[in-house]
Design a protein that fits this description.
Length: 161
């Protein structure tokens, strides 16, 4: 069962995000923080919609407060992080780095935050921004919305061997 939550302030939203990330082991948590910071820098006017759902912690970077206007999402689970392209099936991918075979979504794994700066990944992000149905605002600063928190979640830390 999901409970719908909207943080009353950006300070409270950031506090909740820190709590979500703290559920992960330190290596994954650090990677999530680093990737999120790089994406915020690349998409400073995006509205960040956060879902702490059953399978993943998701940060959707959107041009509006509607999830369907998501450009890219940072995803995290106990195994690591990924970058999901909401409309990835329509993106040009000459380097064949996108994974997935669904009718809409594609993704890449992020072994490090530096992966976001690799030319093929940076080009995909640029293409996703360019094809957005509703473009990102040219000015202003984005904000964070905590959209939902699932009461039941898969473990956020890898099982010990």
């Amino acid at each position: 069962m999901k409970s719908k939550v909207t943080a009353p302030s950006q300070a409270e939203a950031e506090k909740q995000v820190a709590e979500f990330i703290a559920k992960f082991d330190s290596k994954v948590g650090k990677l999530v923080r680093e990737c999120r910071a790089r994406l915020r820098k690349r998409l400073p006017t995006a509205i960040e919609i956060v879902y702490d759902n059953y399978n993943f912690l998701v940060f959707g970077f959107c041009s509006t407060d509607r999830p369907s206007d998501c450009i890219v999402s940072l995803t995290a689970n106990a195994k690591g992080t990924g970058l999901s392209f909401y409309y990835g099936a329509t993106l040009p991918d000459p380097h064949k780095v996108l994974q997935g075979s669904g009718s809409q979504n594609r993704f890449v794994r992020l072994p490090s935050a530096a992966t976001l700066a690799e030319p093929a990944i940076a080009a995909l992000i640029g293409a996703a921004i360019a094809q957005a149905k509703n473009p990102l605002p040219k000015t202003g600063k984005g904000h964070t919305i905590i959209k939902s928190i699932s009461k039941k979640q898969r473990p956020r830390r890898a099982a010990s061997a």
